[in-house]
Amino acid sequence: MCGILAVLGYADEASHGKRARVLELSRRLKHRGPDWSGLRQMGDCYLSHQRLAIIDPASGDQPLYNEDQSVVVAVNGEIYNHQDLRSRLADAGHSFRTGSDCEVIAHLYEEHGEEFVDMLDGVFSFVLLDTRHGDRASSFMAARDAIGVTPLYIGWGIDGSVWISSEMKALNDECEHFEIFPPGHLYSSKTGGLSRWYSPPWYDEAIIPSVPYNPLALRKAFEKAVVKRLMTDVPFGVLLSGGLDSSLVAAVAVRHLAGTEAAKRWGTKLHSFCVGLEGSPDLKAGREVADYLGTLHHEFHFTVQDGIDAIEDVIYHTETYDVTTIRASTPMFLMSRKIKSLGVKMVISGEGSDELFGGYLYFHKAPDKEEFHRETCRKVKALHQYDCLRANKATSAWGLEARVPFLDKQFISEAMSIDPEWKMVRPDLGRIEKWVLRKAFDDEEQPFLPKHILYRQKEQFSDGVGYSWIDGLKAHAASNVTDKMMSNAKFIFPHNTPTTKEAYYYRMIFERFFPQKSAILTVPGGPSVACSTAKAIEWDAQWSANLDPSGRAALGVHLAAYEHEQEQDPKHVPATIAAGGSKKPRTISRAAAAAAPPGVAIEG
């Protein structure tokens, strides 16, 4: 992923000083695009770009232009259908300067005005400046992809300028107010406001889908989503934790890699990557799946202390104080640095599946299919503030791009149109979480995965890297945040008041980097259990007393659920945790054992 910064209407007589300031702020995004920097000034408008070269590394530097350079665009993203669009535009008389997949945006605008965004199949954030009628009559537009896979912020200067940036660190010091640029929207200077360009049926949560489950259609849609994301001119791999989602990504990539241009250039042996504490569930499962698929597998180990030492960098790069995001971002941040050191610039990852299919363990308690579906809608709509933010920013911190096929626009349409009755967890019918996805890839003749991997229980990334990771974070926070500090939390942090010492610790760090009120408001809040929304806590009365985003907070569901007493008394944290050990607490309740799917062993 690249980094963009646009400053529009930056009125000042000293244009040289303004240009220097834009360059200075753009450099705050250089980690996102270490391969090249570009800046175009047109009157009082500036478009800057920090490039991570994935497609056409030789000639695709940005900003990009139309034929006479009267339309200029800076883009962060990948346009997977660019070849088809390029062909259609060429037939209409357009010519291209580069082989960049993003150049089509400037020409589509010439052909269709601002109504072209839905024609793009990919993930993107862009700012486009139209000077065809002269600098003084110029206009601009900006847009963000459907789900918010790419990050984007918008702000306003006291001088009337509009600022748009991939990360808020490039505009927070200059804007009087700034906020998240909402996914699926475009901003037009002609109207001076935002409008939605992406309005699928599932956006109306009152409409409950009724399409019968078709496993073959679901499988084919996902295979297409993965194959699209094999479009690359640089070395790549897959993130492989050994869970269902990453394993399916790897399995499909391995099966289809041979016939792609990427295979001709980089070979048919797929690289896979996994991170975890010594002896963690993910390392073991990832190695097993890699052996089964025949990938060239790379394991990276870290200690609890390694993770704790990286927390400040993680918060700076992810720009959040959300507890579960920081927990999961830290091992991903550490792994991304290792991956980049191997010369790899792009990875494919499994984010989004749990939101589409109700894969989080708290979905076991959904009262009916209507509420199940509404919760999936809420989760998908919020992805840009959680897993999309983590996957993008934790990797982009080291100039690594993460692609997420589960959030392909066409695949989302297929997944969200299924009658949610099929997605419900039904032990009486042998259906565990994400059964519809598992069943779609349960091929007896040509297995994608071994059965026990295909039906492995959901493990959140922050848990799967090693259970003592979260316990170690809590212990570290408890040693840095006093009870007296907590008693005054509501006065120090009146918005999204932290309710745990871990949350307080992250909030302190965040506000050192981003003290503005606007920055604080970009982070979501509210209670959560096992990554639920606040609304879903109503599904089970005992959850309100066990609020923690870890999957182990799903009491009676997770096979290694927290003991309620241990959660209430942090003194019970195992001694090995403080030393950075990887001891794995396995406190199994009768209810958890009863909830285990057939064939899953329970360790005591």
Automatic annotation (TrEMBL):
Residues 2-192 form the Glutamine amidotransferase type-2 domain. Keywords: Amino-acid biosynthesis, Asparagine biosynthesis, ATP-binding, Glutamine amidotransferase, Ligase, Nucleotide-binding. Its EC number is 6.3.5.4. Pathway: Amino-acid biosynthesis; L-asparagine biosynthesis; L-asparagine from L-aspartate (L-Gln route): step 1/1. The record marks E351 as: Important for beta-aspartyl-AMP intermediate formation. Pfam families: Asn_synthase, GATase_7. GO terms for molecular function: asparagine synthase (glutamine-hydrolyzing) activity; ATP binding. GO terms for cellular component: cytosol. It comes from the Eukaryota. L-glutamine binds at D101. The active site is at C2. InterPro entries: Asn_synth_AEB, Asn_synthase, Asn_Synthetase, AsnB_N, GATase_2_dom, Ntn_hydrolases_N, Rossmann-like_a/b/a_fold. It is an enzyme of class 6 (ligase). It catalyses: L-aspartate + L-glutamine + ATP + H2O = L-asparagine + L-glutamate + AMP + diphosphate + H(+). GO terms for biological process: asparagine biosynthetic process; response to stress. ATP binds at L239, V275, S349, G350. CDD domains: Asn_synthase_B_C, AsnB. Essential for nitrogen assimilation, distribution and remobilization within the plant via the phloem. This is Asparagine synthetase [glutamine-hydrolyzing]. It comes from Miscanthus lutarioriparius.
